[in-house]
Amino acid sequence: MSSSPCPCFFLIPLALFLLNSCASTRPAYDATAAFPIPSEIRDNVDFWRKVYGEWGRDQVAFHDDAYLGVIYEVLKLPDQAYTPEQRRLVQAKAADYRRRLRALEHKVAAGISLNAEEQRLYDQLVAKGGKQAVFGAADRLRIQRGVREKFRRGLEISGRYDSIFREIFRARGLPEDLAYLPHVESSFQAHARSSVGAAGIWQFMPGTGRIYDLRIDSALDERWDPILAAEGAARYLDAAYRKLGSWPLAITSYNHGQGGMARAKRLHGQDIGQIVKHYRGPYFGFDSRNFYAQFLAAREVASHADRYFPEGIVYEPPLQYDRIVLHHSLPATRLARHYRVSLDRLQQLNPAWRPAIARGNAWLPAGATVWLPSGTTQRISVQPEPLPARIAVQAKPKPVQLARAGQSARKSRPKQSAARVARAKPKPVNQTRAKKPKTHVVKPHETLYRVALQYDISVEKLRKLNRMKPNDNKIRVGQRLRVSG
């Protein structure tokens, strides 16, 4: 990647979403060093590789949840429907295995000789976990259905986002293979929602999303926007890596939290293999123990798709939208009229919009990203002017609705009077002759990248203007940034 600066335009087609100018000076990561596979989790990685790339929905594995190399049987179902009858078949098979494993434990404890089937089970457990693995094996029995078809569909969908996600991670100096994480989190399903409230392709919880500069209120929920959420994920993973010191721990923290992984590191060191084997902290259950292994398996299968899916994969074409960052708070209807795009089409392109935006009960705030059909900004290069102060006061939603729409993790600035807004309103000038401001006051939810995008400069130049370190991305609300020399 070139270190020379290139323009980072305020209005850019998504197809040209190249953030080379925003890259940090970190060296490129060696994937082998960044993502090691300790011996303690090799069986786990191999297990998830089979789940993602070999076993279909009509295959159910019966296995040990602590020693994933112990796979008692992979049951082939009549079809992929998983009907109540098939579910009963699986449950009966699981009950039979639990019965046999309890009988095995009893015989081993009593020193009674084993029959051939019991010896097979015994040998499997001892090979992977030693003689102590026999005890409690019945309680550790777990059932895992294959997801090969779902993973394949996720690969097809990933064609929309893969190059963009990789550029986002490269721009922060992070390993670009972090772009494989959505295969683990959501299989690239845009409407994915977990039982605990995580949402979107990147599965952010509301509180975590707000911490990492995603707008989540009654007007916008940027967790549902794959690109904006990817930028939030990059900020999260950057912070996690700086705190925890390794990518295995940072990735695992995406599931278990940075605090939980910091505690695991204090107890067992930085080796993820030792943590998976020995850490028994609160909530560090099966999912957390396996999260990094799942990432490695997804990375293996996705990067060798032709090997695991010889029938072929038809990747969806990359997104080609235009991106603007609003100068002023505006209603969606005004944007639609200005850019001559239907409101329905704008809603489709902007999944972060909540219904209040389309209904007119909330306005899009200044600094919000808006996606437009590709080529729109070539036809119309200027943004709509803000509504005159008098009209804006009459047109805006009721104060109660506005207060809800403006909720955030940070305090908003005091409201200005209509007269003061009118005095502050810039005079219309030809955009090509407009004089750029020399400073910018950071508003809630703004990031260094969004400020740079707004003033047509690179993040690298913005850092230099403000005497920031090459890897520094921290700005605070109310901070005054220089945006021109």
Q: Helical region count?
A: 23
Gross morphology is elongated
CATH architectural arrangement of the domain at 150-308: Orthogonal Bundle
Radius of gyration: 27 Å
Relative strand content? 5-15%
How far apart are the termini?
26 Å
Q: Compute the number of strand runs.
A: 8
Highlighted features:
485 residues, mainly alpha, Lysozyme, elongated
Can you tell me about this structure?
With 485 residues, this protein is mainly α. Among the domains are: 57-145, no CATH class; 150-308, Lysozyme, CATH 1.10.530. The chain contains 23 helices and eight strands. Helix 6 (162-171) runs parallel beside helix 9, helix 9 packs across helix 10 (247-256) and helix 10 (247-256) packs across helix 11 (258-268). The chain is elongated and about 90 Å long. Mean pLDDT is 85; it is low at 1-25 and 398-434.
SSE blueprint and pairings:
Layout: E1 12-13, H1 31-34, H2 42-53, E2 59-64, E3 71-76, H3 84-110, H4 116-129, E4 141-145, H5 148-158, H6 162-171, H7 181-185, H8 206-211, H9 226-244, H10 247-256, H11 258-268, H12 272-278, H13 286-303, H14 305-308, E5 321-325, H15 332-339, H16 343-349, H17 355-359, E6 369-373, H18 376-379, H19 389-395, H20 399-405, H21 418-424, E7 439-441, H22 448-454, H23 459-465, E8 480-482
Antiparallel strand pairs: 1-5, 2-3, 2-4, 5-6, 7-8
Give a short synopsis of this structure:
The chain has 485 residues and is mostly helical.
